[in-house]
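Project standup — Tuesday

K.O.: blocked on the structure for the chain from last sprint. Re-posting the sequence here as requested.
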Amino acid sequence: MAFELPPLPFAKDALEPYMSAKTLEFHHDKHHAAYVKTANDLVKDTPFENKSLEDVILATAKDESKATLFNNTAQIWNHTFFWNCLKKGGGKPGGDIAKRIDSDLGGYEKFAEEFKKAATTQFGSGWAWLVLDKGKLKVVKTPNAGNPLAQGQVALLTVDVWEHAYYLDFQNRRPDFVTTFIDHLINWDYVQRNLEAKHALAH
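H.V.: unblocked you, prediction finished:
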């Protein structure tokens, strides 16, 4: 069961002017594709060959000897999740997710501030996430390929703060990229679906 590069859930120019087609071309077609190729090469003829992405991530997350396999499979998962977090949207959500942000994080402005801080203070490469942790919303950051699965958390939203995610559009201005993501690119429908899926599993 080879890992596959999923197509983007939108046209490459669908997020302009906030994220350029050129960025998506490099990010998806080159970086994401490279993780898929490397992961497939690494699992070939090993016990991991027919396991799901999630199973491989969980099995390798705490095993230093499997760090390369973890990094590549986690990056496939993280990027696939990230693409679904994007659309021309952003701003304040409605519905259940808004209520949960109010009750767990002190309101949208507090969430935006905390999420931006996590994304901009992640030293070097990594990700900022909105997760469910023991039933509560929480903002966390992970270095490199780290992801919430390995921490027993449920991912609801992420932003990629590796330089390749924003350098063509924003150069070294990571804070501007993160603000643009929050204000214009969050797909709150997807975040809401992740929240609902978790509740469905819990009942």
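K.O.: great, moving the ticket to review. The two ends are 31 Å apart (CA to CA). The first helix runs from residue 21 to 43.
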